[in-house]
User: What shape does this take?
Amino acid sequence: MLTTSKIDPSGSDSQPLSFRDKLRWLPPKWLFRFLNWLGFRPAPVQALMDASMFMLPQWMYAVAKLNIPEMLHHGAMTSSDIASKVDANPDRIDRLMHALCQQGYFKLSLSNGTERWLNTAKTEVLIESHPNTIRPLLLHWVEDCYGPSTRLLDALSSQASAFELYHEQPGMDFFSDYLESRPTSHAQFANAMTASSAFTDRAVMDDFSWSRFDSVIDIGGSRGSFILPLMDKYTKLKATIFDLPNVIEASERTLSDSTMNSSGRLTFQAGNFFDQDTIPRIGANSAFILRNILHDWSDSKCEKILSNLASAMTGQDSRIILIELGRAGNRERSNMERGRTTIDLLMMTMFAGKERTTDEFKGLLNAAGLELVAIHKTRSIAQVVEAKLATAN
Assistant: This one.
């Protein structure tokens, strides 16, 4: 380790000074200002800033719940005006807005000596009606996932998920136990999944060859946020939305007036992918689509899902199409991999699921009597895993 001498003002002998201690030395003022202008952050400062980021989602959540981005969408407002509208403390609103401004959320305009807040591109996506809104995801993450994340440390040495430990109910399932007993959370989760589609669906539709299929079954297709645009793009494609009975009931009501439904191209079927008898059969030039399904489940549950689907496939021309984020097997560092590992840790927190590498996908498919055809990259964080029935040796 690099060392130098440190002078003790008391006059005692010098002591070794580590390189880490040298980082505490103040640079000349001109150099400090220059480095600050460049945005340079020493490792301790960067780590400290990263550690403080646990607060940022709460700040975003507060302004989203108060609908402040919606207010500013119609024009600039002062902190006092905002506070009056939301019945809040003006000083606290001003400090919250200032803190978020430092993160790129909101900006100030100065007119006639009066400061007014405006949205930025980052705050516009907190508006519910924005085409790329993240508001439902933010609400779901803070209200459903933030608490369980406080038990991640305990979950690392447990067979239970952080979600189970937080709710103190071993074996508690997020879908069948938590959401089913909380209609508001259930609707919010559905909205969150629809919102997440904006980040991947167009790339998945454009970067994978769907034209070879005559019909598809969207497993866990919910409200059709993926399948309806796909049917718009491929006008001869027929599709079935397959989901739990209560979801199908709601989807049929929501989509009763859609042209896809009235033309007979879109049908609905209630069932459960853990119940083989409820899964419709597919033949040549047809496919099962599972979009962000497997990452919610353990390996054993995934093998069960895939085995049930494989049993409903006939012939080598039918396919299972998995739309998953996946995870690099070579430890690469990239913006895409940062996003994938973040969601992987969310799956660890909330479920027994995970984002998987190519070898892990191969293992699941082989165990279910399937084989990997290819993994297709897209211009998004998602990838398309194509599988078929295993060829007999």
